[in-house]
Each structure stands twice: as C-alpha cells, then as structure tokens.
Predict the structure of NADPH-dependent oxidoreductase.
Amino acid sequence: MTPETPSFLSGLWQARYRDGSSSRLIDNPVVRTLLSHRSVRHYLPHPLPENTLETLVAAAQSAATSSNLQAWSVIAVEDQERRDRLAYLAGNQAHIAAAPLFLVWVADLSRLGRMASRADSPREALDYTEMFIVAAVDATLAAQNAVIAAESLGLGTVYIGGLRNHPVEVAKELDLPPGAFSIFGLCVGHPDPTKPASVKPRLPQEAILHRERYDAAHEDARIARYDVDANGFQIERGLKPRAWSSTMLRRIGSLAGLSGRDVMKEALKKLGFSLR
Ligand SMILES: Cc1cc2nc3c(=O)[nH]c(=O)nc-3n(C[C@H](O)[C@H](O)[C@H](O)COP(=O)(O)O)c2cc1C
C-alpha cells in the first residue's frame, strides 16, 4: 500500500488500534504523517539534508507557547564525542551516538531571568512550580512540532527521556545556566531501511476519550483488549511476549522503575528551579 492508496489511512488505523473496523477518519497528508509515527532507533550514518536543523527549529518555534513566554531552548549536538558522552549519560543508548543530530530540549526560565537581571526588574514568579510547568509544556510542544516536521521529511526520531537519568551531569556537559533543564533529547536521522520500525498499537480510543465527564467504568475490558494487541505486536517482531498492563505495573511498582529519577526535585533545585 502506498500513501496514494485510498485505504492507506485504514491501514494506519488498523496498525494503531487493531480493531478490524475501518477508520472513519478525515484523510489528509498531515493526519497520515501523524498516524504513521513510530520511534526510530536505527539510523544510517548519512548527514541530514541541508537546512534540516533550521526547518525543524522553525516548526518548533511555530508551536503555541504559554503567554508567548517562549520558555524553552534547544541545543543541537552533532559532535560525535559529545553524542557519545550523552549516550552514556542517558543509559548507554547507542542510537544517540548513531544519529547524526541529537537535539536537547531545554525547559528554559534562564533567558527570562537574565532579562529581569539586565532590566534590574524582579523575577519573583520564576521561582514557582507553575513556571516550571510552563517551561516544560512549552519545550514539549516545540519538540513535538519538530518531530512531525522531521517525519514529514522522511526522517526518523526518537525521544530520549534517559537524559533525565543524570540531569546535573547533562547540564554540565551542555553548559546550561541556572534555570535551564534538559527535559529530554531527540535523535534525528535517516531511518535504516534494513531495520524498519513499526507503528505501535495504542490503547483503544474508548480508554482515553471521555465524553463530557470522566468515566472509567469499562476500563478493565479495554485494557485487557489492548494487552492482546500489545502482546501481538511483540510476538510479530520476534520480541518477548508481554502484556502492556504487566509491564506498566512493573514500571510503577517500585522506585527502580524511575531509573534513578526519584531525586528529580532535588536535581531541579540544584539546577536553579526553586519550585515554590
Ligand atoms: C518523553 C519521552 C521520552 C522517551 N524516552 C525514550 C528513551 O530514553 N529511549 C527510547 O528508546 N525511547 C524513548 N521514548 C520513546 C517511547 O518509548 C515510545 O514513544 C513509545 O514506546 C511508543 O512507541 P512509538 O513512539 O514507536 O509509537 C520516549 C518517548 C517520550 C515521549
């Protein structure tokens, strides 16, 4: 099936939800790009096309931003040795060293803080948790716009939350000023066609979508259905069979699932966020 085939979107729906029903989605190229998303962890060593970085950043800056505060920054890391060090800090994730571009998305209150200092103006609001949330949301929306732009250009990406395993060391590596936090990274590169990634199924819409009021009444059955889909996805890829729910229960069952990130509040304070 090619993107020109009318049933292309139904195929994407089927891959995402595996419910056999044909989709009733509105079809356009952006929807197709979004539904085609998959994280890519195998890259060709080729450099990116000229002006890729500028295009991704323009897409990122086109995202909405709380009160136009633009409380985020991005650091483009191309240097191989720095990518190697960041790969190590993120838990030895080889795709960081392999992808030609690694973008570090920064929840950044430091620019606003510097503006206040230069203007000899108070900065009281910056010390509150709400402002950290604003910066985190801004950085995340910007990054996701860049992901969509990259995927629309035929590139692959994968987010790297592993950067939060060692936030203070990452801040040192990148010379982050106080009030700047590397919230996640993003590998960008040409997907290796010999190791293609697949569209991963998601929970049925009914488990996520509530109408008018929150209703978890039939949640169990919907999650059980998803366990079957997620398990099927694993088996089809020759991976260990595993139900989504048991994986998630293991993930939330103990601090080990936080990969050392149980000290995040202290780390953020060290990085200059008061979180009042
Ligand atoms: C904020 C965030 C952090 C992530 N961190 C990592 C990571 O450190 N390493 C990795 O291989 N994948 C990471 N991922 C990718 C997720 O594992 C992936 O999105 C999820 O399994 C769904 O698969 P899909 O993106 O292919 O649909 C991250 C995703 C997000 C949104």
Observations:
- The chain has a mean pLDDT of 95.
- The pocket of flavin mononucleotide is lined by residues 37-39, 41, 93, 158-162, 184, 200 (CB under 6 Å).
- Residues 199-260 form one domain.
